[in-house]
Amino acid sequence: MSLVEKFLLGLRNPTLVMDRINREFASKILSKTRKGAKVFEEDWDFLIILDAARYDCIREYDFGQADVESRISGGSNSIEFIEYNANDRPLDDVVWVTANPWVSNYDDRIYKVVNVWDFGWNEDLNTVLPETIVEATMEAVREYPNKRVVAHFMQPHYPFIGVTGQNQLPKHRSFTGGDKIESNIDVDIWTQLQNGEVDEETVRKAYIENFDEVVPKAKKLAESLPGKAVITADHGNEFGTRSFPFPLPIYGHPAQQRTYGLIEVPWIVYSSDQRRTIKSGEITQEDIDTDVSERLNHLGYIDE
Question: According to the lineage, what is the superkingdom (predicted)?
Answer without folding.
Answer: Archaea
